Amino acid sequence: MAKNSAENDATKDRELVITRIFDAPRAIVFKAWSQPEHLMRWWGPHGFTCPVCEMDFRVGGTWRFCMRAPDGFEEWQEGEYREIVEPERIVFSYSFPKGSRGFTPESAEKAGHQTTVTVNFADHEGNKTKLTVRQTNFDTVAVRDDHVRGWNEALDHLANYVVSDSARS
């Protein structure tokens, strides 16, 4: 029993769950995740831009984004859409191509190591949206912690974006 418990704890240490309430209807928040012209306006941590956002938004379709850091360094991310239930859920794989800063020294040899991201969209009182982001299968706790910061900062941008006129058009 102790071994199973330890394995479960190790798995839990390599996942993150973030829940936020957005002051926008679920359809608008879902659109911000599912259309490149919207996603590129909020994706990434503070100071980053998303100059390239390629999406084939369908189950089995792929996505590829470039996040440009304030120092000009470009970090690429990619994955495949595994499940799409509009406007309730999006599930996709998430990886950094080899050579990206997203790799830690410990995992750099594992080109294409994938995590799984599940984004749930729920109606919330007052025409708001409860969003839950769950990402699993991180290589290390340190990598997970870096994603916690990145997701929280990106979700700050999303919160501002979904109340803008641009998100509603």
What would you say about this model in short?
By secondary structure, the protein is of the alpha+beta class. Helix content is 27%, strand content 34%. It has 4 helices and 7 strands; from the N terminus they run H-E-H-H-E-E-E-E-E-E-H.
Keywords for this entry:
169 residues; 7-stranded antiparallel β-sheet; 4 helices
Walk me through this protein's architecture.
- This protein has about 170 residues and is of the alpha+beta class.
- About 25% of the residues lie in helices and about 35% in strands.
- The chain contains four helices and seven strands.
- The protein has helices at about 1-15, 25-35, 35-40, 140-160; strands at about 15-20, 50-55, 60-70, 75-85, 90-95, 115-125, 130-135.
- It has a seven-stranded antiparallel sheet, sandwiched between helices.
- The N and C termini lie far apart (about 55 Å).
- Mean pLDDT is about 85; it is low at about 1-10 and about 105-110.
How do the strands and helices of this protein lay out in sequence?
Elements: H1 2-13, E1 16-22, H2 26-34, H3 36-39, E2 49-55, E3 62-68, E4 74-85, E5 89-94, E6 115-124, E7 128-136, H4 141-161
Antiparallel strand pairs: 1-7, 2-3, 3-4, 4-5, 5-6, 6-7
Strand residues, percent: 25-35%
- Described by the principal axes of the CA atoms, the overall outline is globular
Number of helices: 4
Q: Let me know the number of strands.
A: 7
Helix percentage range: 25-40%
Order of SSEs: HEHHEEEEEEH
- Give the rounded overall mean pLDDT: 87
Structural class based on helices, strands and sheet pairing? alpha+beta
Largest sheet descriptor: 7 strands, antiparallel
Query: What's the N-to-C terminus distance?
Result: 54 Å
C-alpha-based Rg, rounded: 16 Å
Unreliable runs, pLDDT <50, ≥5 residues? 1-10, 103-110
Spatially, the strands of the biggest sheet line up as 1-7-6-5-4-3-2
